[in-house]
Amino acid sequence: MANILGSRVKTFVFAATLFLLIAGFALAQETGEASTQAPATTSELSQPAQPVSSIMLDKIDWVINDMVRCVEELRRTQNQWDKRYLVEQVEETLYREVEFPMLYQQVVGNEKKMDVVPIGSTSDVTYGSDANPLAPKYAEAFALVGIAKGYEGYSAAATDYILRARDIYKDVLSLKVKLDSFEDYKTLSQWMADSRGTWGGTQAVRVTFNGKNVLQDVVDSLNMENVKFQANAKSGEKIDDYYLYVAKRDFLKGLRTRIATDDPLKKDRENKFNIYLPPGKYKLFTSATADYGIDIEVQNDPNRNQFVVETIQNGIAVYPLAAMRGGEKLLKEEKKKEQAPEEQKKPEEGKGGPTGGGTN
Amino acid sequence: MAKILKCALLVAVTVLLSQTAIGVDPDTFKNLFTQEKYSELVAMCESSKAEIESNQYVDRILYYCGMAKTKLFEKSGNVNDLTDALDLLERSDHIYYLPSTSFALGRARLMAADLVSDKEERLAEEWQGLDEMWDAIIKRHAEEGFRTDVVSDTILSWSIAYYEALIQRVIRDQDDPARLRWLTARIRMLADRYKNINPTKGESEVRQTNLQTISQWMDELYQETYFDSKVVVGMYKYIGDRTEEKYDQTETTEEQFHKALYYYKEGLARAKSSKAKAVLNERIGYLCTLYQSGSKDKKIEFYKMGFYASIDGLKQMDDVMNILPEKQMSFYRFEQPNEDVVANLQKNYGHNLSGFLYFLWERGDYKSVVALSKNAFEANFDWKTKHDDLLRIADAASKLARENIRDPLLYDKYKEMCLTSAFRAFQFTLKRFKGARPTYDEAFCSALNVYSAFLASFGETIESTNLDRLYGPVCKEAPKAPAPPPTSTGSEQKQTGSSK
Predict the structure, then answer these.
(1) Which of B9, B178, B189 lies nearest to residue A66, judging by beta carbons?
(2) Model-level pTM?
């Protein structure tokens, strides 16, 4: 009992002290005692951006090291399936340790005081500067994913990642890196050429999915069981199971990381993602009940492989972007619609596209 | 002004009210956990649920509750405890992320994964668990400023727990190449971070030693991922080495001896290159030299095992070294130099043979002792107790000759063996003088006396007399007693350092 009383007395004293402290601060503010702090704030604002801390540089170096370890193992196997975990690990590391923090720090923590100042321009980031010492490192991380995708056999994906890396730091390909404990440092350009050796016969092209009113709970209901890409048997083309598996994984990952509506950063980045598939006709199952297939056609020209994903009841409808259906005029209309206020867009929601009906 | 005063009053009242409502102290939970009073802690967690939820340190309290449940699961195997632990740790992690919670959650998840029978489900759970542990490590690494000279004890223990978890998965999923490659990359990621620790700035000698040890372990871990170009074999060797270090040649740690032996043998069964096989045989041979037990039968069993492993290893090294120089290349990265492997194998060969012979001789199994003469004669290298071993073979052969005195064929056979073995022992000790005139040396004089005595006992008196005349004066001061049986049975090897 005495202890409890003692504890209460202490708490009361603590609360009273806190009150006095805050009250004292308020008084000081009024009497000008605290005015000496104002210039400090002004000088902070007028100071140039803080140099990147060595911790940040060390951090990204370790991230790159982790990615290199995956690429090293990628290089030691010829079996495509054996490469999958490693490629996913590299992609995940990039997203978690570079892409997401980069975007988060620039969008949410867009203050001069942040350790990370704007570091380049990717599709996610709208401003940049090569002068930032983090830029080459972040670019290197993107390029490593490109090389990993190259070793996996996806030339189009590799090229896309390299282009993103060049957006961040234009001389990225001249950076030297050691991708194997027992090989010398080589430029990323040379490693690219090395990884290109495994690209022979790869035909997968970029397929872009643009998000449109995709609800989080629908995304959450989708998984590796109920999402399927199937080669359309009628077309008579034989598509390697590996392409279909990777497309499914990337589709789900894209929905979760790029389209998911619960993400507070959603408004600050492009609402779209890419997957890679050989040209041909496919059936795509994207509902929790997995009983409704949507026909999609992947063409040789990646610019024509633009699709819209949209929530329809318990699933997701996929249909070609308007421009792909009717040319430039329709594309302009589509853009106009996107720019229009939300109220005007609402009546269209739930209708689905010409190839993507609802799900049951 | 008035607004700020009102606000201050509100804050003070809120603090007062909230503190009044709190009936639990996080330190109490922490203390119970550090005192290992897990049941008491769990009971407290369950009886004060409402107070915990309203406490400002709810995440920490849930962490201790979850950890206590994990410990109870480890003790009892009650799955409900593990389920509760996961729930508590997940909630703690969601409320406030701390690397320690993430690490604990990852470990609990791995325990849960061990109980899942469906492979896909297990892998998914494991993946998540390993990710959480790794995430905790890299965040802690960042918190410590990525320094290589000041590394916390926490990170040391986490690193060990993490690589043990990874190695366990390597061994379990050894037939899944995709999984192995991912695990290999993960092992190297960890090793890279801590293999270059500089121990000189450790606060005390003990800590400096700890840092030195962990740095060496991480370097070995990294290198063993390349062993035999097969991570599974490398990890069997690595975990075997770590287990062998825990064997302190007492009965209390005998389990570690058997575990280490198991790991080495499993590695050996999977090794493909002659070099890797030889290295693993060297490890088995070395481990067997360390064996101590009150049971002489067990000693014989393990000296024998170590001896034959050494023979196999030396044959494998012959294969390695007989490759034409122009075609010679390394079998795998970070190979030990051939000379070192051969030297260690020879050392283990001698040590195990010595112990093996001694206990067979002591048991009176002279035929078995004599059967090993071929190995002792044919070994074109020396070891510390070689002359003792040769004299023991001579003694056993002499006894057998006397037992078979009525069988001329056998008598002659054993007589010849006795004299040959004693002669070799004598030659072995004489050789140490490198052609110079011998001077008094206990081993030399002992070999001379025994050889001379055997010659005389088998009627070779002229030869015996000649020997005595030639070398006798040198050994004047030497005791005339027959050679004492060597007592070296291998136990001294670990004390004088590993043969690695």
Answers:
(1) B189
(2) 0.81
Determine the distance from the C-alpha atom of residue B474 to the mean position of all C-alpha atoms in its chain, rounded to a whole number. 46
Domain-wise residue ranges, chain A: 54-196, 205-348
pLDDT for B24-54, tens place per residue? 889 999 999 999 999 999 999 999 999 999 9
**Token representation of residue A6:** 């003692």
ipTM for the complex shown: 0.84
In chain A, what percentage of residues exceed pLDDT 90? 31
Long-range contacts of B80-83 (CB under 8 A, 24+ apart): B82/B108, B82/B111, B82/B112, B82/B115, B83/B112
**At residue B309, does pLDDT exceed 90?**
yes
Full residue range of the structural domain in which residue B421 is found: 368-493
Query: Could you tell me which of A156, A94, A181 has the C-alpha nearest to residue A303?
Result: A156
φ/ψ of A273, rounded to 5, equals: -150, 165
A positions 122-181 inside 8 Å of B (CB): 181
* Per-residue pLDDT tens digits for A298-343: 999 999 999 999 887 777 888 888 755 554 555 566 566 656 554 4
Whether B407 is in a domain gets the answer yes
Tokens 């008598």 found at = B411
Q: What's the pLDDT score for residue B186? A: 97
pLDDT band at A125 (very low <50, low <70, confident <90, very high): very low
Closest to A241 measured CA to CA, from A253, A230, A252: A230
| Closest-CA residue of chain B to A55 | B145
Let me know if residue B438 belongs to a domain. Answer: yes
Query: B283 and B257 in contact (C-beta within 8 Å)?
Result: no
Q: B3 is written with which tokens?
A: 């607004």
Give the closest residue to A148 by CA, choosing from A185, A198, A108, A107: A198
In a domain, B296, yes or no: no
B13 and A15 within 8 Å at the Cβ level: the answer is yes
In a domain, B273, yes or no: no
Q: How many domains does chain B fold into?
A: 1
**Cα separation of B122 and B488, whole Å?**
51
Which residues make Cβ contacts (< 8 Å) with residue A148, sequence separation at least 6?
A67, A70, A71, A74, A86, A87, A90, A91, A195
Alpha-carbon span A204 to A246, nearest angstrom:
11
Angle (CA) A304-A305-A310 rounded to 5° is 125
Instruction: Give Cα separations from B282 to B206, B246, B380, B494 (angstroms).
Output: 31, 18, 18, 14
- With CB atoms and an 8 Å threshold, state whether B178 touches A81: yes
* Complete DSSP assignment for B348-384: HHHHHHHHHHHHHHHHT-HHHHHHTHHHHHH--S--T
**pLDDT tens-digit map of B420-453:** 999 999 999 998 888 888 888 888 998 999 999 9
Per-residue pLDDT, averaged over A125-136, amounts to 60
Q: Are A355 and A322 in contact (CB under 8 A)?
A: no
Distance from CA of B484 to the nearest CA of A (A): 54
A15–B181 C-beta distance less than 8 A: no
Q: Distance between CA atoms of A242 and A206, rounded to whole angstroms? A: 16
Q: Does A185 touch chain B (CB under 8 A)?
A: no
Q: What is the mean pLDDT of the segment spanning A127-139? A: 70
Cβ distance B228 to B234 under 8 Å?
Answer: yes
Q: Cβ of B227: how many Cβ atoms within 10 Å?
A: 28
**Token pair 């825990």 in the structure block, residue:** B246
